[in-house]
């Protein structure tokens, strides 16, 4: 009985998320279909679909491919705004929850726990969670290295000796 209402709630959330994300993407794309330099409408090449992983499951959205504007001196190229914006096709909220729970639990348990409470079903995998944590770790290491490099040399030497 409880699992039925939980499944029902997850299903409802997933449906709301599909509507919400689709509308947000359409609204965002309406600002991307004009040239940033001259304001002319960019010509459509074609339309693809892109899967976005959200806290409430996978959402498939339309993703237009456009031609760059003729005002650009460079040879014409294809512009794919959504691919640029969604580099790893997951929302920040999902990435945050994966990172938060995977920092407390083994990857498999963190993934299973998220799937149990959210309508993720096949939206995430333990290997995806592991890869996300590794990417975050590499980014943190790079940030620390960059911050150390910015320090005055005498302070950086003291930090390294510790
Ligand atoms: Zn232009």
Please explain how this structure is put together.
This protein has six helices and three strands, in the order H-E-E-E-H-H-H-H-H. A hairpin with a 2-residue loop joins strand 1 and strand 2 (57-67). The chain has two domains: 1-89, no CATH class; 91-162, no CATH class. The longest helix has 29 residues, at 2-30. It has a three-stranded antiparallel sheet with strand order 1-2-3, with helices on both faces. The protein has 162 residues and is an alpha+beta fold. Helix 3 (92-102) crosses helix 5 (126-150) and helix 4 (107-117) crosses helix 5. Residues 35, 37-38, 40, 69, 71 line the site of zinc ion.
Topology at a glance:
Layout: H1 2-30, E1 44-54, E2 57-67, E3 78-79, H2 81-85, H3 92-102, H4 107-117, H5 126-150, H6 153-161
Antiparallel strand pairs: 1-2, 2-3
Helix pairs in contact: 3-4, 3-5, 4-5
Number of contiguous helices: 6
Bound ligands: zinc ion
Structural class call reads alpha+beta
Helix proportion range: 55-70%
Low-confidence stretches: none
Shape assignment: flat
Average the pLDDT over all residues and give the rounded result: 87
What fraction of the residues are assigned to beta strands by DSSP? 5-15%
The largest β sheet comes out as: 3 strands, antiparallel
How many strand units?
3
Number of domains as seen in the coordinates: 2
- Rg over C-alpha atoms, rounded to the nearest angstrom: 21 Å
End-to-end separation: 57 Å
Question: Going across the major beta sheet, what is the strand order?
Answer: 1-2-3
* Elements, N to C (H/E): HEEEHHHHH
